[in-house]
Amino acid sequence: xxxxxxxxxxxxLGDNTLAIVAYALVGLVLFVVGFYxxxxxxxxxxxxxxxxxxNPNATLLATAAMISVGVIVSAxxxxxxxxxxxxxxxxxxxxxVGILAQVLAMLVFNLLIGLKIKDLCGEADLQPGTWMLAVxxxxxxxxxxxxxx
Length: 149
Fold this sequence. Notes:
Membrane topology: Multi-pass membrane protein
Family: Belongs to the UPF0719 family.
Transmembrane segments: 20-38, 59-80, 92-117, 129-148
Largest sheet: none
Strand content: under 5%
Helix content: over 70%
Main location: membrane
Number of domains: 1
Radius of gyration: 19 Å
Subcellular location: Cell membrane
Oligomer: single chain
Order of helices and strands: HHHHHH
Distance between the termini: 46 Å
Number of strands: 0
């Protein structure tokens, strides 16, 4: 008994595989951009601060930023009913907007509440302000994601 596959199934499988790879690449680019935006906002080279200094404040902020970008990218992909190219463009734009919203949140916290990332990341112990800023990152990601859907 031979196993026969419908050619339409093969087309869908191929198209979906291409979409997965394309969205994964856009997501990876957004994760890298998000990481380096956070890197610019933290004192020192973030990879070095995390890897060599093992700073928990910098690690938590970078992790929260990556979660936020991941939520935005996931919602953008979910909300896209358009063709692949349009969906990729929408995902990239929404991701960049989310990253910029994170930067704006950092500036607002610095001005209004006095949470300075430089000071937080200069501490060896995990600080309460770091948790607050990390949750803000995730919240911004969720708000941006829901606005996309």
